[in-house]
Design a protein that fits this description.
The chain has 232 residues and is mainly alpha-helical. The protein contains 11 helices and no strands.
Length: 232
């Protein structure tokens, strides 16, 4: 007899809060980063829509599945329990796993901006935990989601979707791709996300961790790229 997986229900208000949290208009600077795509395009690693999809799919199946999603899950539960020690542990684990100074700086800059926004919105504990939350966008994201009663699974969907949308929109400008082609890529890759999230939420503590040599090379080279549209 097969088991039925029950997906936690999300209220209408929580859904709207999630849409707000993943909106590209959120003032945390997401649109200013390409996570190495800018250099990958310049050196010829990414030249076609298929190249971009392969690049993003590789990161979904490595870093997102085995690092970002499972760490987000643990940050969410730490916030839920107001467990500052565990929150700090997983923030440091995530930051230690960012393979270049550029990727680490992005995590911290976006974390600081999102924390300041949550403080302005008077989210409980945002101000008290600012020294920690400002080190990690993922931690601040988890706090907002938990406070707004967004279930963990939907929180993970939103987190991964936001990452994917941002990088596709960056690639549209860099490669360049037409807006329609960018939307076609988003449409096709969205079908991967349920399985990615489901797998990521099953990763055990001892299995958390991922490395992407191509991403690390592209990001480190982007730090000194002669001309750049995106932050390094």
């Amino acid at each position: 007899m097969s088991m039925i997986t029950r997906i936690p229900m999300i209220t209408d208000l929580a859904l709207l809060r999630l849409l707000h949290l993943v909106s590209p208009t959120l003032p945390i600077g997401s649109f200013t980063y390409s996570q190495g795509i800018e250099w990958a395009v310049e050196c010829g690693w990414i030249a076609t829509p298929a190249d971009l999809q392969n690049w993003l799919a590789s990161q979904l199946h490595s870093g997102m599945t085995h690092l970002d999603i499972p760490v987000l899950q643990r940050l969410y539960h730490a916030v839920e329990r107001a467990d500052v020690e565990t929150l700090e542990y997983w923030i440091h684990t995530l930051n230690a796993s960012r393979e270049t100074s550029e990727l680490l700086l992005e995590e911290k800059n976006r974390g600081r901006a999102l924390t300041d926004l949550l403080i302005a919105l008077e989210i409980p504990n945002a101000a008290r935990w600012k020294p920690l939350l400002a080190q990690s966008q993922s931690a601040a994201f988890a706090l907002a989601a938990m406070h707004w009663q967004i279930p963990l699974q939907q929180t993970a969907y939103g987190y991964v979707w936001s990452w994917l949308e941002n990088l596709v929109l960056s690639a549209v400008k860099i490669i360049p791709l037409g807006q329609t082609q960018g939307q076609r890529i988003l449409h096709e890759m969205t079908a991967l996300l349920p399985a990615i999230v489901a797998q990521g939420l099953q990763v055990a503590d001892d299995d958390i961790g991922a490395s992407s040599p191509a991403l690390a090379i592209a990001s480190s080279r982007h730090e000194t790229q002669y001309t750049r549209l995106f932050r390094s």
